TrEMBL record:
<dbReference type="InterPro" id="IPR005913">
    <property type="entry name" value="dTDP_dehydrorham_reduct"/>
</dbReference>
<keyword id="KW-0521">NADP</keyword>
<comment type="pathway">
    <text>Carbohydrate biosynthesis; dTDP-L-rhamnose biosynthesis.</text>
</comment>
<dbReference type="InterPro" id="IPR029903">
    <property type="entry name" value="RmlD-like-bd"/>
</dbReference>
<comment type="function">
    <text>Catalyzes the reduction of dTDP-6-deoxy-L-lyxo-4-hexulose to yield dTDP-L-rhamnose.</text>
</comment>
<feature type="domain" description="RmlD-like substrate binding">
    <location>
        <begin position="1"/>
        <end position="290"/>
    </location>
</feature>
<dbReference type="GO" id="GO:0008831">
    <property type="term" value="F:dTDP-4-dehydrorhamnose reductase activity"/>
</dbReference>
<keyword id="KW-0560">Oxidoreductase</keyword>
<dbReference type="InterPro" id="IPR036291">
    <property type="entry name" value="NAD(P)-bd_dom_sf"/>
</dbReference>
<protein>
    <recommendedName>
        <fullName>dTDP-4-dehydrorhamnose reductase</fullName>
        <ecNumber>1.1.1.133</ecNumber>
    </recommendedName>
</protein>
<dbReference type="Pfam" id="PF04321">
    <property type="entry name" value="RmlD_sub_bind"/>
</dbReference>
<comment type="similarity">
    <text>Belongs to the dTDP-4-dehydrorhamnose reductase family.</text>
</comment>
């Protein structure tokens, strides 16, 4: 089975390649310069030439703050690009797995978000990702849209690596403590993607298709996440860094972010019998890989 993944140096595409190889699956990554999602006419040739049995659409414009001033480019890459990929998947009669985000929600809800909850993005990035979802659904029923959140890994850029980098030169950091969400490990996303891809290829059941939420188990705030990162780093001989919890107003950014974007994993558990590991367990693996040091076993 040939699994074609868009993106060549992103967190999720790199994790999919690494995990796929270890499982003996054929993973082909396609990205710039062969294809450019902002230029839909570049997609069909290379995607079809890769002869996919299933397409995983991971590549995206992910710079949340920069998107506020580059809305047209973000919309092309996150909206029209995936829409075109879905048309190609339909022509090839193969399933499309697409990654979306918790930032499609406003954050106004009290509890966790289910797949049936109405989206209401509060940022350009969130709006463009929602547009991608809509365009995919219009192009082919043979799709799975996986909304994930707060992705981190040893690869690419992410909050864990940012915290460790900032911590090298600072003894304390101010981090927002009033935005709640679910940190999700790219290697866990890859595990889910490869399992779902294989099921979709084998089984045309419509119940396996549609929107699913896919996040690490548990929840925290960015400040809670940062504290866990520095605890794990200190256990491995890293420097102690204090995290000062602050309100969102004290950390002004161009993009607004949801105050609550916790996603429920119940539908995925029911339909696919799949749950991701608790985020602290995955964070431990990530820190071990990043530092090359395993945490000492607790007495
Ligand atoms: N990161 C996160 O916290 C979250 C991510 N997601 C979603 O998950 C998916 C994967 O995210 P993640 O792995 O973190 O993303 P990254 O930012 O790590 O990687 C993005 C990838 O997309 C590629 N890309 C960007 N623009 C284009 C373009 N115009 N044409 C082709 N390729 C392009 C990049 O390639 P290049 O090197 O050429 O720029 C890179 O390989 C995305 O769809 C994202 O929206 C959802 C929730 C949270
Ligand atoms: C670096 C830093 C950030 N923050 C805040 C800003 C923001 O509210 C929060 C997270 O910052 P980041 O810029 O790393 O995260 P952000 O870019 O908002 O991350 C998002 O990326 C996109 C792609 C997604 O799809 C989302 O699920 C989510 O992961 O932490 C601090 O409070 N202190 C700091 O020192
Ligand atoms: Mg960011």
């Amino acid at each position: 089975m040939r699994i074609v993944v868009t993106g060549k140096e992103g967190q999720v595409d790199t994790a999919a390649q690494a995990l796929g190889e270890s499982l003996g699956l054929e993973i082909i990554r396609v990205g710039r310069p062969e294809i450019d999602l902002s230029k839909p006419e570049t997609l069909s040739g290379p995607m079809k030439a890769a002869r996919p049995d299933v397409i995983i659409s991971s590549a995206a414009y992910t710079a949340v703050d920069k998107a506020e001033s580059e809305a047209a480019l973000a919309q092309a890459i996150n909206g029209e690009g995936p829409g075109e990929l879905a048309k190609i998947a339909a022509e090839l009669n193969i399933p499309l797995l697409h990654l979306s985000t918790d930032y499609v929600f406003s954050g106004d809800k009290d509890g966790v978000y289910s797949e049936g909850d109405a989206p209401g993005p509060v940022s350009v990035y969130g709006m463009t990702k929602l547009s991608g979802e809509t365009q995919i659904a219009a192009a082919t029923p043979n799709h799975v849209i996986l909304r994930t959140a707060w992705v981190y890994s040893p690869y690419g850029n992410n909050f864990v690596k940012t915290m460790l980098r900032l911590g090298e030169t600072r003894d304390e950091l101010n981090v927002v403590a009033d935005q709640r969400g679910c940190p999700t490990y790219a290697l866990e996303i890859a595990r889910a993607l490869l399992l779902i891809a294989q099921k979709l290829v084998a089984d045309p059941d419509p119940a396996l298709r549609g929107i699913f939420h896919l996040t690490g188990q548990g929840e925290t705030t960015w400040a809670g996440f940062a504290e866990a990162i520095f605890e794990g780093s200190a256990l491995r001989g890293g420097k102690a860094v204090r995290v000062n919890p602050i309100p969102t107003e004290a950390y002004p950014t161009p993009a607004k972010r949801p105050a609550n974007s916790r996603l429920s994993g119940e539908k995925l558990a029911e339909v696919y019998n799949l749950r991701l590991d608790p985020w602290r367990v995955s964070l431990d693996d990530c820190l071990t890989r990043l530092t090359g040091v395993a945490a000492p076993v607790k007495e």
